Model the fold of this input.
Amino acid sequence: MPYKIAFISLGCAKNLVNTEQMMALCRAAGHTVTGDPDGADAAVLNTCGFIESAKSEAIDSILELAALKNQGRLKKLLVAGCLSQRYPGDIRAELPEVDGLLGTGSYTDIVSAVERVMAGERPEFFGDIHHTFEDGERWVTTPPWTAYLKIAEGCSNGCAFCVIPKLRGRYRSRSMEALLKESEGLADSGVKELIVIAQDITRYGLDLKDGTTLAKLLTELCKLDFHWIRLHYLYPEAVTDELIEVIAREKKIVHYLDIPIQHANDGILKAMRRRSTKAEIGALFARLRAAMPDVVIRTSLICGLPGEGEAEFEEMCQFLREQKLQRAGVFQFSPEEGTLAAAMENQVDQEAAGRRVELVVDLQSRIMDEYNEARLGTCMEVLCEGFDGEAGCYAGRTYADSVDIDGRVLFTAAGLVPAGTFVWVRITGVADGELTGEVEG
Done:
């Protein structure tokens, strides 16, 4: 019997790809797939359980769906993903509204889970997180001009603050053959911006031991009909000269590199079990800027790791002032159970860690404002994402702006600019961290 199944995806783009795979499997099995749980037979909530804020969002979403169930507007609720993998016992005990669970090793069991939950069972699927099936069909839910390509699953880096390896398994690359086949389909469907993702894309292929590397994959992807290829995330110690040469040479790869450094004090980096020193990170940034003078570097930073005193924090701030990284995500340390960092001595007061986050955000805002002001009077290529009725103009992104992370360009045009097309925009102003301008010609 076909059912109406609603999918809700929380967390990162990598999680979204798993949701898209589940949607495709359900549609292939004859079920109707929707994004609206109101009136659905079953809702599938694909959760994130990485840090405290993500767990809170997942629980709030479960409670919202439970309220729909109580009102008779939703029949069954399945919870999938990282929260299920991490806290199955807690969900069973404290959230009785949840009718079934799927761990991160069992996305491909979604059809069985739906059919069993609709038959009145309380199914639980927890497959091997180290051997999941990553190929197969997806129902791409991003706008027609942008899509993600997940090239690997899991992580073997073992950072002290991170629980991902316990939730997603060891690092495993997809085959280049499967990735190129999927990418050809995306290009044929009209995708213009391909966003290459994994927990760590720099280690792509190393586990295959057949000579496959990220540099080789990117060279092949650039032969396909994409306009932009964007990279998330590159770990600093694994960025090779070969990779830098490919990124600099290939016109389709945008010079926007997301390189999470997390800190800039050697003692804190060592405690984090990161593999780079401050000097090595600085040297990498110098190599990248020498090869690509227009490179925009995005990073992730953690404030308040155990052992971080005022001196260590100030050293990170000074490094940021010197490096002037144009983009940064700043996070307060979250002592996640099961991680090495949660058990460390010299835990930092949460209020102090929160203040440090605010200070880094302010510092980075000034750096971003400087970067934006330097764009005034220049002409930049912009991917139009549609007309913003509230702003009364078109909105889009430059190569320096990734989806749902960075700012936008608000621009006017004499004629129609269809969403998904590229235009050249002369930058004439800055407003609340976003650029403004007008289409050239």
The first strand starts at residue 4 and ends at 9. The chain has a mean pLDDT of 96.
